[in-house]
Amino acid sequence: MAIGLLTLMAGLAIPFASPDIDADPLPITAELSIVFEFVESEGGYELNALVRDRMSEEIRTIPLDNCATIDIGVGDETILGEPVACDDERYFFDLVGRHVIVSGIKRNHPLRDVEPGYVILNGVPLLVEDEERVVEPAPSPGLPFP
Predict the structure, then answer these.
(1) Which domain holds residue 73?
(2) What value does the mean pLDDT of the chain take?
(3) Coil vs helix vs strand at 4
């Protein structure tokens, strides 16, 4: 009994390798500050995204939508900031793969692509990995399931 239990425990042991401590750390590939901007216009507001590249000091304004009504703080704050609403459509910042976007109900607005490595968005360090190719699923076996 004891030998069987010992054999079972040995079979369940998982060897862990030590990390390669000599490996170079991944670089910081981008440091961005992203915020929403509402600009008063005739009949409402213009909603923009301001993207500041803190490494190159470049600032870009990306137009997102025109609104009759605005609302700030329409939901729980995300890791990248507080969502806003433009005519009851909620907008928030997100990182999808290697793409920094403004996510909205009608569509997503791309802001900037980032390279693999560490990216700092609004002070939050994030690891961006190489995007893997999507593997096509295997064909169905042709046999119907009961």
Answers:
(1) 28-128
(2) 81
(3) helix
